[in-house]
Design brief:
By secondary structure, the chain is of the alpha/beta class. The chain contains seven helices and six strands. The protein is 33% helix and 17% strand.
């Protein structure tokens, strides 16, 4: 099953090819292995993004796992992937429309068993290697920007860097609301949002705390029924 239908992936790949610089081969002996076509690598990287699977699951006789990672890093260093992201968001905004009056930011932790410069001890996986992705989406859940950090980083300090990924989108509506969970509930977060002219819709820590057991009083020193305070 293809990751994307042809009418979507074809124009994306055409735009991608237009961004790629010409590849020059300078092997001294002229007997190196034939370079895997960019189209093969591109489609496999799209499959990894869409299906969320590991590189070794997608690799086959047409393209190895190491080639996928090497070509990915090459395109990232050239700035092609970031430029393609900006073009795709701009096209979506013109054709369908991004809903930027409401944004949501949150982080998720994934495994990183092979380590890496951005991997860290995961607090939800017995200290094994993991990474955290902090992502901002629009009101319909369209991803607008993501940053990657070690898994043991707290969500709240990542807010500013995550919002910085919105800069390529240009001007935003006035008084944009940013929806956050209770991990961001602090005066520091509200100051950061106010400095950007953003309105924070933050879940309260106290509103989400469970009530204590019956007969033991409330969470905020409420008197126990039938006893003197």
């Amino acid at each position: 099953m293809p990751a994307l239908p042809p009418y979507i992936i074809e124009p994306i790949f055409e735009q991608f090819c237009a961004l790629l610089p010409e590849h020059n081969t300078d092997h001294p002996l002229g007997c190196h292995r034939r370079r895997i076509p960019d189209r093969v690598v591109f489609e496999k990287l799209v499959q990894i993004l869409v299906f969320g699977c590991a590189y070794e699951r997608i690799a086959d006789e047409s393209c190895s796992e190491s080639t996928l990672r090497r070509r990915r890093d090459e395109w990232i260093e050239l700035g092609v992937m970031e430029r393609l992201r900006e073009i795709s968001l701009d096209a979506y905004d013109r054709l369908i429309g991004l809903e930027l009056s409401d944004l949501a930011v949150d982080g998720c932790i994934t495994k990183a068993p092979c380590g890496g410069e951005k991997a860290g001890r995961s607090p939800v996986d017995r200290g094994k290697g993991g990474i955290k992705r902090s992502t901002v989406v629009d009101a319909k859940g369209i991803p607008l920007g993501t940053i990657t950090v070690p898994a043991n980083r707290h969500d709240s300090p990542l807010l500013e860097a995550t919002l910085d990924t919105l800069k390529p989108l240009g001007e935003r509506p006035d008084r944009v609301r940013v929806h956050l969970d209770r991990a961001y509930d602090s005066a520091t977060t509200r100051r950061k949002l106010a400095a950007r002219w953003l309105v924070g819709e933050i879940s309260s820590r106290r509103a989400n705390l469970p009530r204590s057991r019956p007969g033991c009083g409330g969470l905020w020193n409420e008197p126990i029924p039938g006893k003197r305070s």
